[in-house]
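Supplementary Text 2. Reproducibility record for the structural model of the 163-residue chain.

All settings were left at their defaults, and a single model was retained for analysis rather than an ensemble. We include the record here because the model underlies the residue-level annotations in Supplementary Table 4.
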Amino acid sequence: MLFKEEQYFRNSKVGKICLIVLVFLFLGVIIFDFLNQSSINGSLVIAEITTTLIPFLLIWTSKLTTRLDDEKIKYRFTPYNWRIHEIKWSQVTSYQIRKYSPLKEFGGFGYRKKLFAKTVCLNISGNIGLELKLKNGRTLLIGTQRKDKLQSFLMRLKEKNIG
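Retained model, structure tokens:
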């Protein structure tokens, strides 16, 4: 029994808007520099390109991978954390699929930590996620675009008395 999901920030609405803004910013900087050829400075152009290219690459390569099986939950959010995180079902006290507000609760999308709380949220887009309450007092919320498949996986898990 397995549930697997891969989400890319570049495929989300927010990601596409960010990429479009960065492309226009990049083009604007290049056009401005070439129109003002008298003030072109090689190191300034490199700095301008770098400052627009790094956020572009971070958005383009952002990927949330989630994998649930009978034994554990695995997740990874690249490029922010390269290590695959694992949580055994025995470490989970409760779980639920819930609706949430990424902006109100966590201040946006991506790898988010709630201030002064032991809650981490990993999301790409949308407002549905799997909330895991752990024995160590921490809470993990993993966003999903496949609510129905996740729900059926969790129901089968409960039938097996695992989760």
